[in-house]
Design brief:
The chain is an alpha+beta fold and 449 residues long. The chain has 3 domains: 12-174 and 402-444, Triger factor/SurA peptide-binding fold; 179-191 and 296-396, Chitinase A, domain 3 (Roll); 195-291, Chitinase A, domain 3 (Roll). Helices cover 48% and strands 16% of the residues. The strands form 4 sheets. It has a 4-stranded antiparallel beta sheet with strand order 9-4-11-10, covered by helices on one side. Strands 5-8-7-6 form a 4-stranded antiparallel beta sheet, with helices on both faces. Strand 6 and strand 7 form a beta hairpin. Helix 2 packs across helix 3, helix 3 (68-88) crosses helix 15 (402-429) and helix 4 (95-113) crosses helix 6 (127-151). GO terms for molecular function: peptidyl-prolyl cis-trans isomerase activity. It comes from Reichenbachiella carrageenanivorans. Pfam families: Rotamase (PF00639).
Length: 449
């Protein structure tokens, strides 16, 4: 279970390295697999980077004015330019920050795969080899993010700008959206009874005593901890800044001296036995043993009864669903939206093609406007929970329009405006670095004012 509040779904770089590993295998057989299509000082853009970014763009069904490949290439060149300019301006990211970022991403990915051993088996690479391959890419990405924060991060648009952007898109270039649905959920994680919590606290106090009597914390973490992201590393989490871990965990860790071990600490993730390893200014490294309480059948039934009472109230007044979700739902990703799922643009209309299979098959048997009885399910982080689902709306396949797709068009307008700001910065700054673009992409006119 991940302790970090920050969403760690950005694993594209990991997938990129894995793709490169497969491409390298092809290259070993004499196949020409890549070429440099742009260079900014000592930094290069590969054709494979452009191809991957373009395929990702197509998969998202985004709106674009002009040639999207040219726009993507310009974006990639600008990224390299920002890294080169950061070097000139002495803007840097510490290696320790990169390691911290990398550890969190790897922990998340290992959790999705199942185990370190499984990951190494699938890709024939050790974890240390993965991290070495990823280090430079993660560092470059973090430098770009740091530069973006000073160039055009806070961009807003007016409704008039959205309408104008939409009006400039050729009608035959508007994307065609597949069936979309508006669905919401109220999630209840069963409350574990006090007796079980007391048993876990006593178990952790026993582990604390064993460590104080000479047993190795790391070995006990490997044996007992239920945190898949850190157990194999002896419970060590790496360096985090204030505010990045659960507040109860952070408060306990920062109240100790290096080497000290806490009493059992309860957070939303379970019970922790924590040892502070090192503190560096505003960052700290710690390790823990996590034990996650399991709800009993009685606990689950109590959660179902609670949700059933909410369901009855919603049937009598559907407007109360959003209020109940905000007040009672234990799913942080949807509760802020009144329980409704949203796409990457923030629109509360989701393509059926993007739905989790369990959700898809659930609503496939429902009538629009209906709400399910409480159902047990497993959350993305592996937590067992109960939920009710509201099927509010179904939108048939259609071509993008302002009435049905305003949020998506607004997001495209913001992206276009941000790209223009970046492009202006590019034109102003390009004289400070060496830039070369392969003649194959001369039509993109990336170096033309």
């Amino acid at each position: 279970m991940n302790l970090n509040y920050i969403k760690l779904g950005l694993i594209a770089v990991l997938m990129s390295v894995m793709g490169q590993a497969q491409a390298q295998s092809a290259g070993d057989k004499g196949v020409v697999i890549d070429k440099i299509i742009a260079k900014v000082d000592d930094y290069i853009v590969l054709k494979s980077e452009l191809d991957r970014a373009y395929l990702e763009f197509l998969s998202r069904g985004e709106l674009s004015q002009g040639d999207p490949k040219c726009q993507i290439l310009e974006s990639l060149v600008i990224n390299k330019m920002m890294v080169a300019k950061a070097e000139i301006d002495s803007i840097y990211v510490l290696d320790a920050e990169v390691e911290n970022n990398l550890d969190r991403r790897m922990s998340y990915f290992i959790q999705q795969i199942g185990s370190e051993e499984r990951l190494e088996e699938i890709y024939n690479k050790s974890i240390s080899e993965f991290k070495a391959d990823l280090f430079d890419q993660i560092k470059e990405q973090m430098i770009v993010q740091k530069m973006q924060g000073t160039i055009g991060e806070d961009v807003s648009v007016t409704p008039a700008e959205v309408k104008k952007f939409y009006g400039l898109i050729p009608r035959d270039s508007l994307p065609y959206f597949s069936t979309e649905v508006t669905i919401g959920q109220i999630v209840k994680i069963p409350d574990v009874n006090d007796k079980r919590k007391e048993e876990i606290e006593n178990q952790m106090l026993d582990l604390k005593k064993r460590i104080e009597n000479g047993e190795d914390f790391g070995q006990l973490a490997k044996k007992f901890s239920q945190d898949p992201g850190s157990a194999s590393a002896g419970g060590e989490l790496g360096f985090f800044k204030r505010g990045e871990l659960a507040p109860e965990y952070e408060a306990a860790a920062l109240s100790m001296k290096p080497g000290e071990i806490s009493r059992p600490v309860e957070s939303q993730f379970g019970f922790h036995l924590i040892q502070l390893i090192e503190r560096r200014g505003n960052t700290y490294n710690s390790r823990h043993i996590l034990i996650i309480p399991k709800a009993t059948t009685s606990d689950v039934e109590d959660a179902k009864q609670f949700l059933d009472s909410l369901r009855s109230a919603v049937i009598n007044d559907s407007m109360r669903f959003e209020v109940f979700a905000k007040e009672h739902s234990d799913d942080q990703q949807t509760s802020g939206n009144g329980g409704f799922f949203s796409d990457a643009t923030g629109a509360m209309k989701v393509s059926v093609e993007e739905l989790d299979p369990t959700l898809f098959f659930t609503i496939d048997t429902m009538a629009v406007g209906s709400i399910t009885r409480p159902m047990e399910f497993r959350m993305a982080d592996g937590t067992d929970a109960v939920r009710i689902i509201l099927y509010k709306e179904k939108i048939p396949p259609h071509q993008a329009n302002l009435l049905q797709d305003y949020q998506k068009i607004r997001a495209a307008t913001v992206a276009n405006k941000r790209n223009q700001i970046m492009s202006d910065w590019f034109q102003e700054t390009q004289g400070e670095v060496y830039i070369h673009v392969d003649p194959e992409f001369e039509k993109c006119r990336i170096l033309v004012n």
